[in-house]
Amino acid sequence: MPVLPSKRLLPLDSGPRPLFAVWEITLRCDQHCRFCGTRAGRPRDDELTTEEALDVVSQLAAMGTLEVAIHGGEAYLRPDWLDLVRAMRARGMDVTMVTGGRGFTRALADELKRAGVTAVSVSVDGTEATHDALRGLKGSHAAALRALELLRAAGVPVGCNTQINRKNFRELEAITDLIAARSVYGWQVQLMVPMGRAADADDLWLQPYDLLDVLPRIAEARRRCDERGVKLWPGNNVGYFGPYEHLLRGDRTRSGYSSGCGGGVRVIGLEANGDVKGCSAMGSEGFVGGNVRNRPLREIWDLAPELRFARGFVLDDLWGFCRDCYYAEHCKGGCLWTSSTLLGRTGNNPYCHHRALEMLARGKRERLTLVRAAEGRIRDKAEFALTVEEAPPEWVTAFQAATAAPP
Q1: Contact in structure between 344 and 383 (CB atoms under 8 Å)
Q2: Is-contact 269 275, C-beta < 8 A?
Q3: 372: which strand partners?
Q4: CA–CA gap between residue 397 and residue 120 (Å, rounded)
Q5: Alpha helices per DSSP H over 229-296
Q6: pTM over 0.85, yes/no
Q7: Which of 19, 24, 186, 227 is the most buried (most CB within 10 A)?
Q8: DSSP state string for 185-203
Q9: Non-local CB neighbours of 270 within 8 Å, separated by 6+ positions
Q10: What secondary structure does DSSP assign to 133-181, as a single string?
């Protein structure tokens, strides 16, 4: 069984507030993405009713939430989704949206604009063939690009997002050119994590040593985006503290570098059935602090240890390589979702560029090996073993030469 986050109860504080909420309003979806962490498709039997969801809107506003990012599944497939958007806007909150874009029409884009959606991020996962294969639907790529055009025509600011995996990371340059030509305001990239349906896709899993190839490509994408006026935003599980950290985060965070997980500190996540977590991406097991049907949202935020452990970080929360890392106090083990999914517990994150470089200097690399397959449930995980192996000499030589040049 996986080791779950610490259950220590920290003293109450008045500082952390959920300024940013990420809300999965339905699991109904019109695509079948191979990397979907929730196994979206059909709606959950117990999704919040309109009345319950509107009450959540009121509670978020009362807690001082400034922005709500809605997603699914596919958010526009929930019949009352625009009612929820209008309610959030009426309470003074910005509303952004993440979509695959398959069902967008001119009428839907216009309606979304009238409801007050602040911005929309459309998922673009590669060139046409790669994107369609990853999304499990021929024509998905064309639909995403059409959604970008329809939203721009309606006057809605549009951005893009990409989950980076073994099938698409070599296409980052092509994706950069593709989206920059469509006047997007920004582009968020994050690493695919093998949870849910992605746990079944062994051909998509990144190995820790792949970051030696992935991070320079993301850095080059950042440079190209700067030239084209597009803001590239690295997701919380991209990094950490390698030679590109300043380039990627120097002007994207207050500190200028990765400073650990914001889940339960300034971010709150909600599942479609009302379960509350520190971050929407996290698995359900061990991270759900309560349900809005049973407890007030403010009470869950203030008291649930599953949402509070990131607020009281101590070095002893880390283990393995991360515990003795030079950057441990600042990085705090990086993305908790990533480490808990890969190794069954938080505090040791093998998806780290600095770590891969340290291994390379020793002529070694880390490998994840499947021990137990996922069971096919919503947000389920596989079980992996992490081993350190001697790297092939020619592989070491090639990457050492590639990293010798200044970034």
Answers
A1: yes
A2: no
A3: 383
A4: 43
A5: 245-249
A6: yes
A7: 24
A8: SEEEEEE---BGGGGG-TT
A9: 21, 22, 23, 24, 56, 276, 277, 280, 292
A10: HHHTSTTHHHHHHHHHHHHHHTT--EEEEEEE-TTTGGGHHHHHHHHHT
- For CA atoms 393, 398, 404, 407, the dihedral sign is negative
**Residue 123: which H helix or E strand, with range?**
strand 119-123
Residues 109/150, Cβ–Cβ less than 8 Å: yes
Question: Which CA distances in Å does 205 have to 104, 210, 211, 351, 368?
Answer: 30, 10, 12, 11, 9
Instruction: Please give the pLDDT value at position 52.
Output: 98
Are 170 and 177 spatial neighbours (Cβ–Cβ below 8 Å)?
A: no
The pLDDT tens digits of the residues spanning 95-148 come to 999 999 999 999 999 999 999 999 999 999 999 999 999 999 999 999 999 999
Q: Is the omega angle on the peptide bond into residue 240 within 30 degrees of 0, that is, cis?
A: yes
Structure tokens at 164: 């980076």
Local mean pLDDT, 10-residue blocks, the chain (407 residues): 35 71 97 96 97 98 96 97 98 97 96 97 98 97 97 97 97 96 94 97 97 96 95 92 91 82 91 95 91 97 90 91 94 93 95 96 97 96 97 93 67
Tally of CA atoms within 13 A in the half-sphere of 377 that contains its CB: 7
Q: What is the Cα 407 distance to its own chain's centre?
A: 26
Going by C-alpha positions, the residue among 166, 180, 102, 110 that lies closest to residue 140 is 102
Instruction: Write down the residue that tokens 């792949």 correspond to.
Output: 210
Site of tokens 């969801």: 53
Distance CA 325, CA 355 (A): 8
Cβ within 8 Å of residue 307, ≥6 positions away: 263, 264, 268, 276, 277, 278, 289, 300, 301
Would you call 310 exposed, middle or buried from its count of C-beta atoms within 10 A (0-12, 13-18, 19+)? Answer: buried
Which residue in 58, 60, 62, 155 sits closest to 106, CA to CA? 155
**Residues in a beta bridge with 149:** none
